[in-house]
Amino acid sequence: MARTALSRDQVLDTAAALVKEHGPAALTMRRLAAELGTAVTSIYWHVGNRESLLDALVERTVADLGTLRPHGADPAERIVSVARLLRRALRDRPHLVAMVHERGLTEQMFLPAQRALIHEAHAAGLRGARAAELVRAVQFQVVGHVLVERNRERSPAQSPAETELWAARSSAGTPDEDPALARALAAPVDTERLFTAAVGALVAGLLGAHTGPEPSTR
User: Which of 16, 112, 124, 126 could disulfide-pair with 75, CB 3.0 to 4.6 Å?
Assistant: First the structure.
């Protein structure tokens, strides 16, 4: 049976998968060729040298984040949906996002999400500095949350863990404490739900306060 001809997209798909799983250091032309079952010369023909390949992966990552499509019944819901999609995109490809950052293209990567947020801010009646405040606040919330999540995942094991500390307080049942709160803090963190609640509260606050004084741009 004849082998299907290798395409540039196949090369980039396989290279992206290697980087996402093992990091940029694992991406060598020899390993990529082995994954694809082809010769190294074939890889060079499709994407050039390794630096050209990395540049192509960065371009693709920037383009991928331009495909975020908000959904929801009103601007607030759609803004939260943009934030959730952006968080998921950053979480799914940390090594590729780091490569984008190293090449000085971070702002370009975030531009499509910013445009989507601006559109929804205008739909909600925000203009000028207020719209800019909402866009930046949501973007900072997304990036900050992702960084905290990554830090928690990479931190050394804690002993006792947070869940164990609060479980002990819950079982103690002292009258000056809140047992239901202790039980909730003893449960594993649902980061997706926590993120959605935080962004929802942020957006509701910013949209609800748009009748007040204009924020300073100083």
Answer: 124
Written as one letter, the residue type at 64 is D
Position 201: which residue type? A
Domains (range + CATH), the chain:
8-48 (1.10.10), 73-208 (1.10.357)
Q: What is the spatial distance between Cα 218 and Cα 215, in angstroms, rounded to a whole number?
A: 9
Residue type, 124: A
Assess contact for 142 and 87: CB atoms under 8 A.
Answer: yes
Mean predicted confidence (pLDDT) in 195-203: 97
What mean pLDDT, rounded, does the chain reach? Answer: 87
The C-alpha atoms of residue 100 and residue 90 are separated, in whole angstroms, by 11
Give the tokens for residue 55: 């540049």
Residue 29 has pLDDT above 80, yes or no: yes
Tell me the C-alpha distance between 73 and 37, whole Å.
48
Tell me the C-alpha distance between 180 and 170, whole Å: 8
Give the pLDDT mean for 179-203: 89
pTM for this structure? 0.81
| pLDDT tens per residue, range 66-102 | 888 999 999 999 999 999 999 999 999 999 999 999 8
Question: Measured between alpha carbons, how far is 66 from 25 in angstroms, rounded to an integer?
Answer: 26
Burial class (CB in 10 A: 0-12, 13-18, 19+), 87: buried
Rounded Cα distance between 142 and 199, Å, is: 8
